[in-house]
Amino acid sequence: MRIAHSSPHPAHAHARKPRRFLALAATFALFCALATHLSAPLSAQPKHAASLRIYAIDVEGGQSTLIVAPSGHSMLVDTGWSGHNGRDADRILAAMHDAGITRLDKVFITHYHVDHAGGIPNLVQRVHVGEFLDHGPNREDSDNTRHNYAVYLQALKQKNIPRRIVKPGDTISIPGLSIVVLAADGAHIHAVPGIPPQPNPYCAGEPKWPVDPTENARSTGLLLRYGKFSFLDLGDLTGAKEVALVCPRNPIGPVELYLVNHHGMNLSNSHALVDAIHPVVAIMDNGAHKAGMPQAWQTVHDSPGLKALYMLHYAEGSDAAHNSAAPLIANMQGSPDGASFKVVAHASGRFSVTNTRTGKTVDYPAQ
Q: What is the model's pTM?
């Protein structure tokens, strides 16, 4: 607005000028602020906005899987081995750092073998844990496993950490995620809310599996869903219990991501399970000299619709034909250990897998 110098009322005009200009200036400032926000580069937005993150951590043939919801709430499944100067707890901490979290809301223990529960004392010395979840008392007649269970209880007592015993059908509260317990203490679910059980055509040809008296058969397993993305982790559940879970009707349905049972051992990974769940991607948490067995590898590799079988280690006890291609392996023969896989998933069902050894990321579209 321009005011003529010959105005007969200069004082009056000067009094009106600030009010009008202030109103225009305030509107312009608001517009600029909104435009700046909307045009901000992606790098200025939260690093992991609206995504689920799953880390398959290298604990040398044990299990430790970190789950971080879009809300920032977290759950760790198993803790790796005892000893090794706290190596596995340190690797868990590194994954937590990448995810931007400093505490674990929950730690979910599948069973009491040392490669899954051995790292608990080291972990609770380093990280605040809100709650532990497990299947209840140890059932295995083994001095080693009884010792692992006693050490676990002692660690919880020393740190005064709450414990919850779960059973099939229970849900685990992580904001933004749906998590249901499929199996625990030798029992299993018959239906998952929202998933109609379907007849399983792969049961007919399944051979009879031996009864397993160990803690493996007592493994606590879960199905996690985030929108159209699903993740299956059954710990070390063995063949007879796998078949009981999915036969004659499969309550799980197809999944995007399958953590290969029992590190890829032949005691697990029945066709009735693996073929029925139709995983898009599988991650095998084997060690260089543990599991990754040819028969189990082949069963998972040949699963209908599978796009990729990732392995935490090159299985040195196997052969080249039963190891995945190098870009799908986190830790190659002769290379330093500790590389992992990072999965970033979206509610649409789209997800990606990053091999931290190579830094390469592969995207998988929604199915």
A: 0.86
